[in-house]
Amino acid sequence: MRADFFLFLAIFVFVFLLWLYSGGPTHPISFAGPYLTPVTNVGGESQGYGPKVSIPSGKTSGSTFWGNWSAGWGTSDSGSSNTNVSSGTRSPYAGKVYIEASSSHLGTGYVSQEYITLRASTNAGSVGITGWQLASSNSGTRTVILQGTPVVRQGNAGPIILHSGDEALISSASGVEGTAFEETSCTGYLDRGNGNAYYPSLSTYSCPSPINDLGSYQAGSPAQYNQCADVVRTLQGCRIGDTGSQSNLAAWCQNFITNQLTYNGCVRMHQNDTNFYSGVWRVFQGRNAPLWRSSGDTITLYDQNEKVVDQYTY
Hints:
By secondary structure, the chain is of the alpha+beta class. It has 2 domains: 65-206 and 275-313, Immunoglobulin-like (Sandwich); 210-270, no CATH class. The chain is 22% helix and 16% strand. The protein is built from 7 helices and 11 strands. The chain has a 5-stranded mixed β-sheet with strand order 1-2-7-9-8, with no helix packed on it. Strands 5-4-10-11 form a 4-stranded antiparallel β-sheet, with no helix packed on it. The radius of gyration is 29 Å and the shape is elongated.
């Protein structure tokens, strides 16, 4: 008798695990309701009671235990919600680029401070996002991601390419230096040179040290260099140089401070550095009013073929 009980229990557990593996509570039949309609139209379609249910094709980030247990198309690192996206509308870039909710800034009421962060996953490879769209489910607002230039003030605009781990801050407002550019070790000059015009501020963590640059630029006698170095050491990185009342400095030193300690001078000196590019794009949509609601909306990221890459509900 006891052996029969354990045999029954083993069979029950096996059937339960098989049910979970085949879809469990996410299987469509679990949502279909009782099938009480008599089957009289053989070969036709019979309807059961209860509402039609749209079943996600896989798990979603921030989903329930069952959604996370069943195999699916993956979640983003950000915790953004890829909800109810059928396989027919899902982009091949889903899971490669996502909306990073924790780094986005919505609902401020100020267009100058509003932005959405897109991030390429660590295994994304190279993904072009020019021509992609961000859309609001509530208002129907859409905005298209345009082209950009890797280095501000240099070259022609082209497709924006995100490599693995890169990010793009899609700001609703206009940009001082154009539609889009990639931050570099020199772009901090643009922020400070324009009265901190960017939000969030352009990164200055990798600004070249003025005193190190002076070592590469050295000219004149040792005494002149030492005198110049004393002044340069007081200057901060990514701040436009000003000799001010330092008229006693050698001409080459004054030229270094006023011409090299600028954005253009920095680019000339550092554009071939291995750490010149930051992997952070700044994209500006040129709007005069906020694009997104402060709360209660879903923002969908579409690729160039109108396929859903990611969704973020807040």
